[in-house]
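hey
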């Protein structure tokens, strides 16, 4: 089994007026289905009201992320699944619930984790 990241940036989620409540309900329903299926690992969204910190190896830090990288925002779901086909199916369900396309990535296997 592999862990898959299903995500979208904030700008991708354009919800028509009056549908935000339905989107939340539909997204929570998919997450509940993932929990019931035993494939749920984690889900959530980046709190964009809290700025990122760039932390150095010596413990010093500065507000802001990598200046050369695009900002990291949006919603994320991590599921542990048997196949890429299963991951695509779950990503499609999340895309339908959120009313936006989802990016699918697989985490590299780490036998120590």
């Amino acid at each position: 089994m592999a862990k898959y990241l299903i995500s979208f940036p904030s700008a991708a989620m354009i919800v028509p007026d009056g549908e935000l409540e339905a989107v939340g309900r539909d997204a929570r329903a998919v997450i509940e289905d993932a929990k019931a299926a035993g494939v749920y690992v984690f889900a959530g969204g980046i709190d964009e009201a809290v700025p990122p910190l760039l932390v150095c190896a010596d413990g010093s830090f500065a507000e802001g992320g990598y200046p050369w990288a695009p900002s990291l925002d949006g919603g994320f779901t991590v599921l542990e699944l048997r196949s890429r086909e299963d991951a695509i199916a779950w990503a499609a369900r999340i895309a339908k619930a959120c009313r936006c396309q989802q990016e699918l990535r697989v985490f590299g296997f780490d036998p120590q984790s």
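Residues 20 and 70 are 26 Å apart (CA to CA). Strands lie at 2-8, 40-45, 53-55, 61-63, 75-81, 103-106.
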